[in-house]
Design a protein that fits this description.
The structure is a single chain. The protein is an alpha+beta fold and about 220 residues long. The protein has one domain: 2,3-Dihydroxybiphenyl 1,2-Dioxygenase, domain 1 (Roll). It is built from 3 helices and 13 strands. The protein has a 7-stranded mixed sheet, covered by helices on one side. Strand 12 and strand 13 form a beta hairpin. The longest helix is centred in the last third of the chain and has 12 residues. The protein is globular, with a radius of gyration of 16 Å. The two termini are about 20 Å apart. InterPro entries: VOC_core.
Length: about 220
């Protein structure tokens, strides 16, 4: 499953454009008075301005599975990485065979670079913004993650993520290429103390040759 495009909100389109263009060095593919679309590898990240918006999102980007150390050095020249414990910034997701690092954008959104070792995507080139392969995850907040997951599976012919232990509080749909991460409200986004909130989100998926648009 691939996350071809996600559309989320920002209180300030100019500051958001500056962060993704100047800090993360991603290409702006369309800009209007109240929206900006950003090319993130094979995915599109679109922000729509809502000045009264005060919440945050969590989303992740896949990077080459052999480039996490280089990504850390690259990020440290640009922004602060979130420390997990004792100055360590890397999280080891053993069940998912992946390692990840976390940081914030200008909106306070929780961003993640994740290296999934079961994907055949290693690279020899030095890490850069072009090493961001695609949007890997988007967090969706719902009172009943498992129930919503089953609804999406039934309606759109999707699947629960086979590496995840899905539960009433946390469920994941998709695969290593793309995941919908569904959590209950007020569950802290790992590795922060920021509680999750349900925010308007639009996701365009590609799955088994089908194009699917889902609005949350």
């Amino acid at each position: 499953m691939k996350l071809a495009k996600i559309q989320i909100q920002t209180p300030n389109i100019q500051q958001t454009t500056a962060f993704y263009q100047d800090i993360l060095e991603l290409s702006i593919i369309e800009k209007t008075v109240d929206s900006v679309s950003i090319q993130a590898g094979n995915s599109i990240l679109k922000f729509v301005e809502q000045p009264s918006f005060k919440s945050i999102y969590h989303f992740a980007f896949n990077i080459p599975e052999n480039k996490l150390d280089e990504a850390i050095k690259w990020c440290r020249n640009k922004t602060d990485l979130i420390v997990i414990k004792d100055e360590n910034v890397i999280t080891n997701f053993e069940n998912w065979n992946a390692h990840a690092i976390y940081f914030y954008d200008n909106n306070g959104n929780l961003l993640e670079f994740i290296a999934r070792h079961d994907l055949d995507n290693s690279e020899n080139k030095a890490f850069s913004s072009k090493s961001i392969l695609n949007i890997s995850e988007i967090g969706i907040v719902n009172e009943n993650p498992l129930e919503l997951g089953n609804e999406l599976i039934s309606k759109y012919d999707l699947n629960f993520f086979s590496k995840n232990t899905n539960s009433e509080a946390f469920a994941a749909i998709g695969d290593d290429e793309g995941l919908l991460i569904i959590v209950r409200p007020n569950r802290n986004w790992y590795p922060t103390q920021t509680p999750s909130e349900s925010n308007k989100t639009e996701v365009r998926l590609q799955n088994n040759g089908n194009r699917i648009t889902i609005k949350f």
